[in-house]
Records
---
Amino acid sequence: MLRKTAVLVSLTALLVAPTMAFAQDDMVVMGDDIAEACPAPANLSGEIPVGALFTISGAASVYGSVQQAAVQMAVDQINEAGFLGDATINILFEDSASENEQAIAAMTKLVDEDAVVAVIGPTLSREAFSADPIAQEAGVVVLGVSNTASGITDMGDFVFRNSLPEASVIPGTVADTIAAAEITSAGLLYANDDDFTVSGFEVMADELANADVTIVGEETFATGDTDFNAQLTNLIGASPDAIFVSALAAEATPIIQQARALGFTGPIVGGNGFNSPAVLAQTGEDSNGLIVGAAWNGASPNELSNAFVEAFSEATGNPPDQFAAQAYTGAWLIASAIRCADSVDRTDIRDSLAALPEIDTPLGMFTFDEDRNPVHPSITQIAQDGFFVPLISEEVSSS
Ligand code: 1QQ
């Protein structure tokens, strides 16, 4: 459990670093840059309702459950640190249950009944395409922390995301895979009924073509499928150096297992859906050599990331994943926008979020571009013995 320490400001801290006055006595947290950029708010008081809409149950719950834990931890830190002066965030969690209709109902409740000033989430891009127009229509900021499909922020000027889109991550994944594994051919497999998996596939196909990698075959499946032997047999029969897969975790796991069972020993390269440690835990040795592009890796040398890993591990008993790091950062970004706005007006918060300066975060130095998409470094990882490690200079087996 997170320690509920009182906010103690030591005399030394005041003398050495007056801008640290909000920080907890023994914890490194994310708000330093904003504490310097924006004075302590003078106009805020009471509880400020903020929504968090995640798929806490359902097929994609491996993502939403860690997002919930990470946002709760961030909100505890924000409130305990007095980051919003006399006010605290009242975080209201809703479960989209991996269903678009449920996401719409939950977003409507948060925006209309709970009168939240901003919403973090929803988890899946297809949920965002369903539910975000409700927030946009009501003039409420919605900050995606795991939406990676193309076109998310095109829904409107209240729609932001801090999750690097596949279009930003996959080019690096393709380039690093070519450099490390010297692939010249690839097969592609993707779910053709999900906004994120289709978008990821399109980016993979474009990037492979740009890099002159021969595409030996493209195969599709539907979300919820469990048997991929027919598609994998077709692809493996064409002898690709690597297989690129755009899938959510529930399908990623049997795809890896079945590809290995069919004798494919080359790199399997996954998109963002593979970034859950649940995929590695469920596939064991089969995921050795799996290559996945990410917005964050636990090996990052960044001090805020290290502090986040320590605090999250202590709070939950498990190390965080990329989705936790993005959700944690997202909650601090919303708090930062509220602090800098010194207002709970929904439009003031939107303008403040869009105008945040570049700040240090567990994801690295972070800023929004003019389209409200994130700008920060990405990383290519390879799975080794149940963990994602940076790919750079790691050995990759080829078929
Ligand atoms: C999306 C994704 C998923 C993997 C989120 C968990 O990237 O739906 O956009």
Note: The CA atoms of residues 325 and 362 lie 7 Å apart.
---
Amino acid sequence: MSEIIHRTKTRQVKVGDLTIGGEDQIVIQSMTTTKTHDVEATVAEIHRLEEAGCQIVRVACPREEDALAIPEIKKQINIPLVVDIHFDYKLALLAVEGGADKIRINPGNIGRRERVEEVVKACKAKGIPIRIGVNAGSLERHIIEKYGYPTADGMVESALHHIQILEDLDFHDIIVSMKASDVNLAIEAYTKAAKAFDYPLHLGITESGTLFAGTVKSAAGLGAIISQGIGNTLRISLSADPVEEVKVAKELLKSYGLASNAATLIACPTCGRIEIDLISIANEVEEYIAKIQAPIKVAVLGCAVNGPGEAREADIGIAGGRDEGLLFMHGETVRKVPEETMVDELKKEIDILAEAHYEK
Ligand code: SF4
């Protein structure tokens, strides 16, 4: 497969105070599960998402009461808010007026041209972008008739159709998603989209499933796309608490060195040489580093025989030993630590490294 570096070659689109596209980073999004008009529940969920590392949040807007709740939600949250609208241009206008930082609507589904013009005019006036959401499961009838069934070419054609409508109105603050629940179809669609236009791409495998199955499926599909240099923002779609979506997204981005504000855990797979209760220690350390917003690599290893050498890339780590462990940095032992205080010593060192990073 030839290498495509689309990520840095896309246009830059502002969403609130964030920039999507044109740089080698992928912004994490999630979507609330509450009724949007229930402001208290929606804001509480958004606060939990913010704390987990979510950078942009989307809310559904099926009714007028949801659109009318946008101003109050906006007042109480700290990350950009995307409002998801299906067909109703009036809801789009209300959302834009209410302070949405981006709307998700397909211009081809709005109806008469004057309505599209009205929405585009409102977005331009407020300087907010539109995400075109192409979904393999809901392609336009003429595209399904042409291709027979949902194909990557059909999805790209649909995206270009919606893009053209916006470009004809001289609107270019566009982000595009090409979601499919079939992993191979999603990979092909995003790969073709990256060659077809330079608008930022919002990645996602839709209806991917429950926490476990959906995580594996999303990682398989999105990993193949991200590894080609494609994607500027992403949402992991899980049938689970949306906080889990953010945790999975962060972990996926860490795997590609694309999370600049998260610590990574390296834990040995364990074997017969193990000297400590590695599984519970690894879980404890993983939970501890979830709050660290610095790109620190932390290792937890089961024994001191091969331990430090096996985790040379770690900034800091511990290796288990009989009665005492080793604290090491970049593969070199720093000091011996008693087994019972080993994890606390590691946490202290992690905090020192994090502080040094924050001060930079
Ligand atoms: Fe086995 Fe030690 Fe390597 Fe862990 S670090 S896999 S316990 S040899």
Note: The pocket of iron/sulfur cluster is lined by residues 268-271, 273-274, 301-303, 305-307, 310 (CB under 6 Å).
